[in-house]
Each structure stands twice: as C-alpha cells, then as structure tokens.
Write a sequence for this structure.
C-alpha cells in the first residue's frame, strides 16, 4: 500500500514539475517540441521518487509504485495532447470569448480553418518535410520517407487516412440548418 | 500479474494488428477500443485461470500498468488515424506533383470542402452538447461554457498559454 502512495506522490510531483517547465520552455525554447519537456519532467519525477523511496521505505515495491505513476502520467499526457493543438477545443475557446458566445460557421470555414491549415503547413516546412517553391509546395526526400512509413503503418493497422473523425450521426451529413 | 500486464502492454500493437485483420470495427477509434477491450479481457482471463490466490494490490497494480500501456499506444494510434499534420504530408505526397496551398487542402480533404471539415470537427462539440447550431451560427451552450473553463484550467495545469 505504501508503494501505491509513492506512485501517487511521483505522479503529483510530475504534474508540479511539468507545468512550470512547460511554461518556461515555451518562452525560452519555442522551437523545441513540448513533448521533450514532458518526457524530461517524467524522468526527473520518477527517478527522484524511486531513489528516495528505495532509500527510505523498507517495504518499497518498485513496480507497484511505477504502475500508479505510469497510469497518472499517461492520463496527464493524454490531457496535455488534447488541449495542445485540438481544432475542436480551439474553436470552443474562441466561441466562449465572443459576444453572445457564437461564431458564424462561414467564419470558421473561410478564416479560422485556412489559418489552422497554414500553421500546420509551416510546421511541415520548418521540420524539413515540405519545401516551398514560389507558390507551390513539394515534399522533400525526408517527407516522402516519413509519408511512406506512415502509409505502411496505416495499412498494417487497418487505419484509413481521411483524418476525419468517425461520426455516424445525421448532423455530420445534413446540409446546414437549424438544430 | 504485473509481469503479465507488462507483456500484454508491450504486445498491444500485435493485438491491434490482429483486430484489424479479424474484426470489422467501424472507424479507427472503434478499432482501438476493440483492441483495448480484448487486451483487458485477456488480462482478467489469465488472472482467473492462473492457479493460486491473487494479491489484490498486485492485481490492481497490473491493471494500472495495462491501462497505462493502452493510453501510451493510443498516442501514436491517434497520430496515425487523426493526425492533422501527418495527413497533410501524406496527402501532398499522394498528390504526386507540386501543389498550391488550395490544391494541397483539396487533396487533404479528398475532394470535400472546408465546411465538411469544420462540421466534422464541430461534431465533437455538438455531440457532447457543448455547442449547438442556430441558423448559420455555432453557439456555445452553458455546458460548453463549463467545458471551455475546464479546458482553460487544464491548459494552465499543463503550463500552456
């Protein structure tokens, strides 16, 4: 039971380290992936609590504590991923800032989404996956290699590549109108 | 049970490949859910079959390890299935020649327009009751306002601006 508690403490320490490190890293190292800082915070908190518990708690069981830490850490990582770049949640935040908490659907389709597309295109250019040639875009050799690997993995796991969420409700198919 | 959970956690991709071959789950999200439920079922089946008594802490700890592994593998799975940036790249490669930005977006949407993409992403909010459609406007519901505040709190907890 003490080992379970050590795992909880490690997860709490991880959250306490991850948030300020992330905030600091965004200012100091904006080009570095946020996931790298998340991983660093996980390693620091896990090692610190494991070493301390191994020295101070005679009945410490490493894997019992690690199971709690891994579960807590992965829940936090999933939450982090959900709020980091989600288009839907970005729209929700934008929506609640507007007068009357409403946005015209055309504004989302014609202004916000093209902007989101442009941002993602820039990421691909900055990471060397795509090159810009005047007004046109071409995949680089590295981009083609990565795309090939992704396609093979998708085939292996039976994943389609539409990138649209699988909603089967009528609302996703019907033309616009009052709900 | 921790060793069994670790072994099952490592072999989640194998279970997912088997699921892709032998089950007919509709959609990538459902495919992952089926694979995850099969892994959990195998874990508890082994716990029941193995001789001897089970230590509750060991069983609980093993279950948490398996859940952590399922959450871990869910990250690359979601990237492959729903990754916006990765799919932009594969769409450009599939296009086969230099593309203007609008051609690239069109290739990504496989012929659909941005309104369909907007509606697809909005389905998450509409389906969860966080937003509703009023004529041509998307309107946040009171539940959506609570959801937005939770997202802001989560962003704060994650150290994101």
């Amino acid at each position: 039971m003490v080992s379970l508690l050590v795992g909880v403490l490690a997860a709490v320490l991880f959250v306490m380290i991850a948030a300020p490190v992330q905030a600091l890293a965004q200012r100091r190292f904006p080009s570095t992936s946020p996931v790298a800082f998340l991983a660093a915070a996980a390693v620091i908190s896990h090692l610190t609590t494991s070493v301390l518990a191994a020295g101070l708690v005679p009945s410490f069981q490493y894997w019992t504590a690690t199971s709690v830490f891994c579960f807590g850490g992965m829940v936090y990582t999933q939450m982090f991923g959900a709020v980091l770049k989600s288009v839907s949640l970005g729209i929700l935040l934008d929506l609640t800032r507007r007068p009357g908490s409403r946005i015209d659907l055309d504004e989302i389709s014609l202004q916000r989404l093209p902007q989101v597309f442009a941002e993602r295109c820039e990421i691909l250019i900055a990471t060397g996956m795509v090159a810009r040639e005047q007004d046109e875009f071409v995949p680089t050799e590295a981009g083609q290699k990565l795309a090939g690997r992704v396609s093979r993995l998708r085939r292996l796991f039976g994943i389609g590549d539409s990138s649209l969420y699988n909603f089967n409700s009528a609302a996703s198919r019907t033309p616009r109108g009052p709900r | 049970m921790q060793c069994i959970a670790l072994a099952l956690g490592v072999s989640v991709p194998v279970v997912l490949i088997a699921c892709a071959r032998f089950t007919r789950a509709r959609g990538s999200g459902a495919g992952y859910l089926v694979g995850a439920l099969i892994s959990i079922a195998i874990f508890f089946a082994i716990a029941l079959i193995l001789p001897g008594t089970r230590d509750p802490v060991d069983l609980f700890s093993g279950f948490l390890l398996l859940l952590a592994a399922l959450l871990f593998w869910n990250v690359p799975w979601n990237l492959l299935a729903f990754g916006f940036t990765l799919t932009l790249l594969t769409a450009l490669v599939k296009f086969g020649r230099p593309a203007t930005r609008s051609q690239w977006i069109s290739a990504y949407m496989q012929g659909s327009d941005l309104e369909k993409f907007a509606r697809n992403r909005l389905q998450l909010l509409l389906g969860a009751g966080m937003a509703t459609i009023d004529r041509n406007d998307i309107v946040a519901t009171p539940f959506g306002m609570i959801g937005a505040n939770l997202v802001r709190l989560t962003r704060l907890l994650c150290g994101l601006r």
